[in-house]
Specification:
The structure is a homodimer. The first copy, chain A, has about 170 residues and is mainly alpha-helical. Chain A has a single domain (about 30-165), classed as Winged helix-like DNA-binding domain superfamily/Winged helix DNA-binding domain (Arc Repressor Mutant, subunit A, Orthogonal Bundle), CATH 1.10.10. The first copy, chain A, has helices spanning about 20-50, 55-65, 70-75, 80-95, 115-140, 140-155, 155-165, and strands at about 70, 95-100, 110-115. Chain A has a three-stranded antiparallel beta sheet with strand order 1-3-2. In chain A, helix 1 runs antiparallel to helix 5 (about 115-140) and helix 2 packs across helix 5 (about 115-140). The radius of gyration of chain A is 20 Å and the shape is globular. The interface between A and B is large, with 73 and 71 residues. Chain A binds a DNA duplex (30 and 30 nucleotides) through helix 4.
DNA sequence: ATCTTATGTCAGCCTTGTTGACTTTCCAAG
DNA sequence: CTTGGAAAGTCAACAAGGCTGACATAAGAT
């Protein structure tokens, strides 16, 4: 990619402008406001169906890694099993998620979206991708590459591992 | 590092690869995992003091726009006055925030951080800026510019207005 | 004098997070 | 075969922080 810019460049010069407190604060505020937009569209859909963000997250990652175990989902989402279980139970009851007993290890439950689950996932992800697509389109490919680099650098190492594991299939 | 590069399609001249569903999903997941990192450090500090993210947000924006009114804060934060009031009350009781009756319009309350409030703000923002600085440094100035462009494009128009209003002082 | 705005507050509800305790299932090591 | 421990589920209780609705005050605006 384009930027190498070790930023160590001209000492008393500039180019370190992007590391001033003011710039960092703007980045922080941008994250805050952008995240609101990021979740706004799915939130509207979810509210109609009587679900919340917790349901969205479960649906998203089950769709992304069909057959994932509860434990795996737990470590991706970073919540307690009790929290996840409440969400999962309602999704299973409502017929959006199917829980299959493991064949190798029958203690494990493997999670899959049902037809109805896939449909909701689609609806949610369509809305969220539309927003992301518009933002990407407005900013252009180079900006998108930078966006992704900064986000990745911002993750905790464990989350970065999850990110790569989930993401490594496909481009 | 890793393959962030949009392997760039040499389609009929332009790179639209960054708009594939897969790329968009990766962007969505990057936002999710990065936001976790973004809030992780302040969250740890807040927990020690018995506060939550809601307190952090109030402190942040009061610091950013000292003398702001309750109504203004309300529209920035996008919560109800009851929600904000609960948070504000505890901050005022604990002596972190001061509420002064307006001079021109005595119905308004203008909010300021006290010495103690400024100190906590500093502690929180130091932690958050440190993470942001490391991410910026790792990604470089060009990536940072792209990062900010995409985030801004992702905001709802009203949030973007707030962002610009808050941000337009300084660089 | 009346309408409206800004703020504060009480009560109650929901979602989603937490901890702790306990059970069931079942793999695997002794 | 027995037993230890991991995976999963469940129940109960609690807290933070959203929400709505209702109501009270003070004070600017008409």
């Amino acid at each position: 990619m384009a930027q190498v810019a070790p930023a160590v460049a001209q000492k008393s010069g500039e180019s370190l402008l992007f590391l001033t407190d003011e710039q960092l604060r703007k980045g922080i505020e941008a994250m805050f406001f952008a995240y609101r937009g990021f979740t706004a569209d799915p939130d509207r859909i979810l509210e109609e169906k009587g679900y919340g963000r917790a349901h969205h997250r479960a649906i998203h990652f089950i769709h992304r890694a069909p057959g994932t175990t509860v434990n795996n989902l737990l470590s991706i989402l970073g919540v307690t099993k009790q929290s996840l279980n409440r969400v999962l139970r309602s999704l299973i009851e409502d017929g959006l998620v199917e829980s299959r007993v493991g064949h190798r290890d029958k203690r494990e439950r493997h999670l899959y979206l049902t037809e109805a689950g896939l449909e909701l996932e689609h609806q949610l992800s369509d809305a969220q991708r539309a927003r992301m697509r518009d933002a990407y389109r407005a900013a252009g490919p180079a900006a998108v590459a930078g966006f992704r680099q900064v986000l990745e650098a911002m993750m905790d190492p464990e989350m970065r591992r999850h990110f790569h594991r989930i993401t490594e299939r496909g481009a």
